[in-house]
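Title: Prediction job returns without error message
Component: structure pipeline
Severity: low
Priority: P3
Assignee: unassigned

Description:
Job completed but the reporter wants confirmation the result is attached to the right record. Sequence as submitted:
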Amino acid sequence: MSKLLVHVCCAPCFAAPSQHLKEKGFDLHAFWFNPNIHPYQEYKKRLQTAQQFCEDENIPLILKDDYNLDDFLRKAAFRENDRCRMCYYDRLKYTAIIAKKGNFDFFTTTLLYSKFQKHDLIREIGESLAKEYGVEFYYEDFRRFWKEGIKLSKEREMYRQQYCGCIYSERDRYLGAKK
């Protein structure tokens, strides 16, 4: 059975892909590292929901509970329109490092579940980090589980956020995307 480390952005995005990956025979482990999420109360709600889901599903969860908003904002400043690249890179880099240290066969991310994320960019970064760290990036387009994931998260009464997580995506949700 291949060991797969899954970067988890939130439990609702992990629900359907986790079931699918278990059915494919993967030994799943979850990894939480999301310093982009703002505000802190939002970060805590998402973390607690992910912890509860992993506990309920008996999926080991590795935490890098590092709320470092200052670092995220420094990296995003003056690059707001390209912030996702930096954000994907940071989260996938730490996932690859943990996967290497933990002797995982693969690493991936629940960011591949969202129809709002940039899949080509996520895949490009994941494959680049796979070469750098010597752990294969598992790419699968989890968007096909979108409706199933929504249904599962509602049935389980999970906290369901309304934006990606960063202060900019929160702004875009309420004020509309900047052109």
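Comment from assignee: result matches the submitted record. The chain has one domain: 3-175.
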